[in-house]
Amino acid sequence: MRALQVRAAPPRTNTPRPKPQPKSQAKSQPKPKPQAKANPRSKARAKPTGPGREVVIPPGGCTGWHFHRVPLDAMVLAGTLTRVLSDGTVEIHPAGTAFVEPAGIDHIHLGHNLGSEPVVLHITPALPAGTPFAIPTPPPPGVTGAACCR
After folding, report:
1. Closest Cα partner for 45 from 36, 53, 34?
2. Is the link from the previous residue into 11 a cis peptide, with omega within 30 of 0?
3. pLDDT of residue 146
4. Could you tell me where the DSSP H helices lie in the chain?
5. Sequence-distant (≥ 6) Cβ neighbours of residue 20 within 8 angstroms
6. How far is the C-alpha of 120 from the C-alpha of 125, rounded, in Å?
7. For residue 77, how many C-alpha atoms fall within 13 Å in the half-sphere facing its CB?
8. How far apart are CA 111 and CA 62, in angstroms?
9. Residue 120: Cβ-neighbour burial (10 angstroms; 0-12, 13-18, 19+)
10. Are 135 and 108 in contact (CB under 8 A)?
11. Cα(150)–Cα(145) distance, rounded to whole angstroms?
12. Residues 34, 108: contact at Cβ < 8 Å?
């Protein structure tokens, strides 16, 4: 069995910082409201960006091994998603982070919720209704099928 590597997914920020105003102009213009930052410990949900589908994984739930036909962008709106990739790498994605799921059989992976609150994902692109996001598959060679167990 391969040893698992753990790496945290970097948070994704799309909000540009406001440019500082010269003192003479700062008094005449209203101050911009501060932007809320994603807090991985917060139970509040992040805002989805654009069309797509919402996926909910209950506490203790697991997606099973699968791959995707097309690349998918995912944003974790609530909870913490733990992903196991086909090479045994483990990625942890707290609420407010985003990641890309590459397409194809070479990118088998699974996701599970080891936390006590549901994991809520916003997935894009928006595929036609009835089109499955994932194609179930057996575990990759060298990785046990029990990766979804606690």
Report:
1. 36
2. no
3. 54
4. 23-26
5. none
6. 16
7. 16
8. 6
9. buried
10. no
11. 12
12. no
Residue keyed to tokens 């707290």: 94
Among residues 143, 66, 72, 145, the alpha carbon closest in space to that of 106 is found at 66
Instruction: State in Å, rounded, how far the first CA of the chain is from the last one.
Output: 17
The answer, yes or no, to whether residue 7 has pLDDT greater than 60, is: no
According to the model, what pLDDT value does residue 18 have?
A: 54
Full-model pTM? 0.62
Could you tell me which of 131, 112, 114 has the C-alpha nearest to residue 53? 131
Q: How far apart are CA 110 and CA 86, in angstroms?
A: 8
* Residues forming a β-bridge with 7: 91
